[in-house]
């Protein structure tokens, strides 16, 4: 659903990236289904107290999803998305098991439990997932580097949890910051904006793109920052603000500017990939909360 929309700088049905194609992203979205289903099932069992929350092992399912993507899509198309959707899926299973009303608020309460119940095995599995994906890690961290075997030994020896790894990385990586804030941008910005825009326009496509622009305009993308530096990340956010001022996805002029920005970003290989991950998590929350869009 999200892949189909023309979000500037991202892959979509009308345009590939230099390194990945629309088909590879679609493939990646399909093959992570089993790992996310497993997360829901384990979360459900934890909600029924048949499994300790600490034994959900989200890291294992993140690694499984990345491995499947690498096998079938041959590229890293969804590491960031899996880092967000896997714990959300587990929290969704818990919420279904425990609650009569399936709301975003209850989902977030259970998510907090899932995130804080990770252990060093989760951390090591996510390190493996990052290496399998070919990603550069969670930013440039001097301590506990993904590529350093001594770091893995320290994680195991000191029982450093995945949540603690995210705390270390949260100052510069948006995905890590989502982990240590119970997904603040997802629940307090992305989800409410999607709900608001869809309620106003009854157009899910436009709501997704407009939410993407709003998040990008206020949060310089950490994927862009890692590849191109802080200046380019901030400049891209400023350009997103300009698009919104032209009407964004809701006006012909705004859509024209979106098309131009998409081409300009791709010419320079600038991809707001983390913002796309946040749209995925925001949409998951919206659907769980009861959003039933007309497709």
TrEMBL record:
Domain of life of the source? Archaea
Annotated Gene3D superfamilies: Triphosphoribosyl-dephospho-CoA protein
MF (Gene Ontology)? ATP binding; triphosphoribosyl-dephospho-CoA synthase activity
Q: Which InterPro entries match?
A: CitG
Q: Which organism is it from?
A: candidate division MSBL1 archaeon SCGC-AAA261O19
Name listed for the protein in its UniProt record? ATP--dephospho-CoA triphosphoribosyl transferase CitG
Query: Which residue windows are coiled coil?
Result: none
**PANTHER family named in the record:** CITG FAMILY PROTEIN
Looking at the Swiss-Prot or TrEMBL record, what is one Pfam family this protein matches?
Answer: CitG
């Amino acid at each position: 659903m999200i892949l189909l929309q023309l979000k500037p700088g991202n892959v979509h049905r009308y345009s590939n990236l230099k390194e990945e194609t629309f088909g590879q992203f679609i493939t990646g979205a399909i093959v992570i289904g089993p790992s996310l289903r497993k997360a829901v099932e384990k979360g459900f069992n934890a909600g029924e107290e048949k499994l300790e929350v600490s034994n959900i092992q989200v890291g294992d399912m993140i690694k499984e999803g990345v491995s499947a993507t690498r096998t079938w899509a041959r590229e890293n198309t969804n590491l960031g998305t899996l880092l967000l959707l896997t714990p959300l899926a587990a929290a969704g299973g818990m919420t279904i098991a425990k609650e009569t009303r399936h709301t975003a608020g209850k989902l977030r309460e259970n998510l907090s439990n899932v995130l804080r119940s990770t252990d060093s095995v989760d951390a090591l599995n996510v390190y493996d997932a990052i290496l399998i994906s070919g990603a550069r890690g969670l930013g440039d961290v001097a301590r506990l580097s993904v590529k350093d075997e001594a770091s893995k030994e320290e994680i195991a020896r000191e029982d450093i949890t995945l949540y603690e790894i995210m705390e270390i990385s949260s100052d510069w990586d948006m995905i890590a910051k989502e982990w240590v804030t119970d997904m603040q941008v997802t629940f307090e910005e992305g989800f409410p904006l999607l709900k608001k825009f869809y309620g106003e326009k009854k157009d899910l496509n436009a709501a997704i793109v407009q939410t993407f622009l709003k998040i990008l305009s206020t949060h310089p993308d950490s994927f862009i920052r890692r590849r191109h530096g802080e200046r380019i990340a901030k400049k891209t956010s400023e350009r997103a603000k300009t698009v919104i001022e032209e009407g964004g996805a809701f006006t012909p002029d705004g859509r024209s500017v979106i098309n131009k920005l998409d081409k300009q970003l791709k010419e320079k290989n600038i991809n707001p990939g983390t913002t796309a991950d946040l749209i995925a998590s925001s949409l998951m929350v919206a659907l769980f909360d009861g959003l039933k869009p007309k497709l």
